[in-house]
Structures are given as C-alpha cells and as structure tokens.
Write a structure and sequence with these properties.
Blueprint: H1 24-32, E1 39-40, E2 65-66, H2 83-87, H3 91-106, H4 131-136, H5 138-152
Antiparallel strand pairs: 1-2
C-alpha cells in the first residue's frame, strides 16, 4: 500500500536579521567568507562585571561574547501600532513581525496584497526568548537588584 503524498510546499520568500547581516544575501556572504559576528557582550545586554565574583556557580557565566543586533529600530508606523503598545511588548515580537512582513514582501506580497491566505504560512525562528523574558529572570537581574538596594542603604 502506498503512503499518501504530502502536500507540496514552496519557499518563495526569505528575510532575516542577524548580527552584521540584515538580509539572507548578507548572511550567505558571511557564511561563504566564514566570518562570525561575535563580539564582546555590550554592557547594556549583560554587565559581565556583575558576574566576575561568581566562579561557574549558579549565578556565574562563561559567556563573554555574543552575536547581537546593533542599531535595529522597530518602525511602528509601518505597521500602524500605537507607541504605548510597542513599549509594553517584547521587542522580539516586533522583530518577528518585521521579518515576517519582509519575507512576504520578498515573495511578492508586500502589505499582504494578493496573498493566498488559506494556503500561506510563515515560519519564524528565534534563537532567544526575547528581551522582556530575559530581563524578567531574577537570576539574571540579581546583580542589578543587589547594587540598587546596596546603593539605597
């Protein structure tokens, strides 16, 4: 007995945001050149000095470099989203929205015009959990909280 054929799928649009590569073409060129975008972690993302005393313990970190997006700004007006909503949400959500819209535009469906909505899907990958959930983690925020409380005593 033959198994039923799976429905055909086609990838017709791509978009991405990586450190030093804002387009699939730029990412491909980085891969061909075997170039990495890892740099010392920016202090505003993770202050390594806060973890200098911890030696591989629960509150320590071995990471000192990361591939981080620089200069990205969400254009809320492009998507007609109120400023208060943007401020109250995780930037990772807005980045995903922007990349999905760019992938649809790359496929020829800018602003969703002519998009076959019943047969279209957008697959998004994200290597992090987002800034809001990261910042909400008490373990990661403890050095900041410790410094802030100590400064008030």
């Amino acid at each position: 007995m033959n198994a039923p054929l799976a429905p055909a799928i086609a990838i017709v649009g791509l978009a991405c945001r990586y450190a030093d590569a804002g387009t699939p073409q730029a990412l491909w060129q980085m891969a061909l050149a075997q170039r990495r975008a890892f740099r010392r972690l920016p202090r505003e993302r993770l202050n390594l000095a806060d973890y200098a005393e911890a030696v591989a313990g629960a509150d320590g970190t071995h990471a000192s470099e990361a591939a981080v997006l620089h200069g990205w700004h969400f254009d809320r007006e492009r998507f007609r989203i109120p400023a208060a909503t943007v401020r109250a949400s995780d930037p990772a959500h807005w980045l995903a929205l922007e990349v999905a819209a760019d992938a649809l535009a790359d496929a020829g469906f800018g602003d969703g015009a002519g998009l076959p909505r019943l047969t279209t899907g957008v697959v998004i990958g994200n290597t992090l959990t987002g800034e809001v959930s990261r910042a909400a983690s008490l373990r990661l925020r403890w050095p900041y909280a410790r410094r802030t409380v100590a400064a008030r005593l």
